[in-house]
Amino acid sequence: MRYELHYWPGIQGRGEFVRLALEDAGADYVDVARLPRGPGRGIPAMLRYLEGASVERPPFAPPFLKAGKRVIAQTANILFWLGPRLRLVPASEADRHWAHQLQLTITDWVKEVHDTHHPISSSLYYEQQKREAARRCERGA
């Protein structure tokens, strides 16, 4: 099966964890938003899933993975679903849940790091909230 990864093309963030899993497993996938515009390609193709009324269970935001007719969103959820299929996690259920627990911990950590640089808003540049970022680092919040 060819997977379709949907994530912003110029941002290294949550989508990288999915990309790394697909690469490590040698999976057949296409990084949709990084492709030149065309039918089913580029950022417009990704936005159709986010904004289109025809998607039964639309994702809230990238990253999301299309696998056949299935659309799976949220990094930890995508990896939890992909892991067994790509043989990247142990076979036992207990071990798979432990791996998922580690991924959720990583997700928390990434959010803390992100919020250190963007303590007011993700829509503002770091330079616009530099003073508040320094205060956040001081208090270790």
Write a compact overview of the structure shown.
The protein has 141 residues and is of the alpha+beta class.
Task: Provide structural commentary.
The chain folds into 2 domains: 83 residues, Glutaredoxin (3-Layer(aba) Sandwich); 47 residues, Glutathione S-transferase Yfyf (Class Pi), Chain A, domain 2, CATH 1.20.1050.10. It has 141 residues and is α+β, with helices and mostly antiparallel strands. The relative contact order is 0.12. The protein starts with a strand and ends with a helix. The longest helix is centred in the last third of the chain and has 25 residues. It has 5 helices and 4 strands, in the order βαβαββααα. It has a 4-stranded mixed beta sheet, covered by helices on one side. The model has no long low-confidence stretch (mean pLDDT 90).
Itemize the secondary structure elements and their pairings.
Blueprint: E1 3-6, H1 14-25, E2 29-31, H2 42-51, E3 64-67, E4 70-73, H3 75-85, H4 93-117, H5 130-139
Which features does this protein show?
alpha+beta; Glutaredoxin; 4 strands; Glutathione S-transferase Yfyf (Class Pi), Chain A, domain 2; globular; 4-stranded mixed beta sheet; about 140 residues
